[in-house]
Amino acid sequence: MEGHNQSLPIMFYMIGFSNHPDLQPLFFALFLVIYVAALLGNSLITTIIANDSRLHTPMYFFLINLSILDICCTTAAIPMVLQILLSMEKTIPFSECIIQLCIFTSALSTELMLLTLMGFDRYVAICIPLHYSTIMSKRTCILLAAVVWILGFINSFLQTELILKLTFCQHNILDHFFCEIPSLLNVACSDTFINNVVVIVADIFFGMGCFLLTVISYTYIISAILRIRSADKKKKAFSTCASHLTVVTLYFGGVIYTYVRPAFSNNPEADKVMSAVYAFVSPVLNPVIYSLRNIEVINAVKKLLGRNITPKR
Questions:
Q1: What is the pLDDT of residue 5?
Q2: 207 near 181, Cβ under 8 Å?
Q3: In whole angstroms, what separates CA 88 from the centre of its chain?
Q4: Spatial separation of the C-alpha atoms in residues 174 and 15, rounded to whole Å
Q5: Is residue 85 domain-resident?
Q6: pTM of the model
């Protein structure tokens, strides 16, 4: 198909769930529950940390940022998915698709860097605890958070700008359930070589680079923990890292698979599954993982609930 004049209205037909028409109501209910759970869970984590001065530490500061990013991820993707599931036409205009792509890509790349920062924070806390307050000062944490948000936005802006330079046919079939870079490049009617090169460079930096730095941090962390003689201290050190390590494994695994593998092969069904892991499942699991495995958060929840339940005199 040859590209049409870009002044014509461009529509994307989402066929992510078309193979299972009888399950559309079930998919709608499932995604609605996921969205509500992600919003409530991440909002609760943010409220708990903000209201408990004992949690005003670098680790929980980064966790608030993570919760905000998870809300951005799900809000960028799921409401549109719900709309498509209810719609008979299963279409999304080009402009709405680009807005979704821009927000989602920005949140995605920012979260990858933020998870790396959280790994570095745990490295400093466990491997060089005497210098922790100096290295991870309030000013430094705010600066680091600002840098990763800005870099994430720059990456999103660049990727979106390159997508806008492509020519798309008037009618496009997207074998996905929301607008993401790999699926859009597959339906472009013009050459996507530059886009693919920029995506691979971004993957190396944001995906594999951040993952490598996280692995290095945890190599030192695990080595330091194994040298601790006290069983209680060793258990406490492992517990503070286990939550973050679980989230990192889920998130990086899905992102690297979805964005790096398309350069070598194409499997739309696997792409949809892996996209769902980091776009929908991870934002829901993050509050659960960090709260159930973290005694400080559990105590803060009890304190908050006790304060609200206890009648005022």
A1: 44
A2: no
A3: 30
A4: 6
A5: yes
A6: 0.86
